[in-house]
Amino acid sequence: MKTYYDVLKITKEASSKDVKVAYRRLAVSLHPDKCVGMSAYTQLVRKDKFIEVAEAYNVLRDREKRNEYDIMLSLLNSEEYYTPPVPTSVEKHVAPKPVPGNYPIRASANNQRWSVSPWEFNFTPMPAMAFILFAVALIFFIFNLALASR
Q1: Which of 18, 35, 75, 130 has a CB 3.0–4.6 Å from the CB of 14, allowing a cystine?
Q2: What is the DSSP letter of 33?
Q3: Would you say residue 140 lies in a domain?
């Protein structure tokens, strides 16, 4: 979780002077007027970071707001109010193997059942679609040729 302290790149024990120095340093480098000539994407990213830095400074410069923020942060990090999720293994989810014999009968001479499930085939409909489009275009061309010869 990114905190306002992380945004300003300061420690939690930083004084108000340190907060002000960190804010000014970041504000000068991220200010939208310094983005002239950069790509639109870079300007947007820097503008968002500038707004984030300004928001962090507005909370951390005021003593009352900072105390409230620290209390909320400590509550979020306590196990009483927040328990981080248990890390799971990074293994790829594998679907359960299907029960053999529960698939439609293959149209073959000896009526064998599917050896693998029909959902495991890597079927891409693009070649069939291209053939259908070609056939429709050919029929359209022949029809127009017949009309033109009248």
Answers
A1: 18
A2: G
A3: yes
